[in-house]
Amino acid sequence: MFEFDYKPEDTTVRVFGRTYSIPTKTAFFIDNSNEINKRIIASKSTIETVEATLDGIALYLGRDFVAERYGNTDTESIDTDEIGALWAFLNKASAAVTKKVLEKYAPAD
Q: How many Å apart are CA 56 and CA 67, to the nearest integer?
């Protein structure tokens, strides 16, 4: 017998010593994430890439996090390795949740 009893779990990540819940993958979240990725790919300057990446980080961790961590920093001075790695980390954490759900409910044959 097959059974489907999906219950979303709170997914947390630890960023700079603090724990954050990351959003469930809703249509709104995925559309916004995809839009941010398009902006990153299409950006004509590193500044545009930084701005889009910060929007992506805010999508996951909230505007308050971005304001607290980067708010007083001139966009031109933000460490691009840091925010790029953080963006990748957040996306990987989100993808791991999807992978876990698929392994449980739609395992590979």
A: 13
Q: Would the pLDDT of 71 be above 90?
A: no
Q: CA-CA distance, 1 to 52, in Å (whole number)?
A: 46
User: What would the DSSP string read from start to end of the chain?
Assistant: -------PPPEEEEETTEEEEEPP--HHHHHHHHHHHHHHHH-SSHHHHHHHHHHHHHHHH-HHHHHHHHTTS-GGGS-HHHHHHHHHHHHHHHHHHHHHHHHHHS---
What would the mean pLDDT of 21-27 be, rounded to a whole number? 94
Spatial distance between the Cα atoms of 37 and 40, rounded to a whole number of angstroms:
5
Residue 109 has pLDDT above 70, yes or no: no
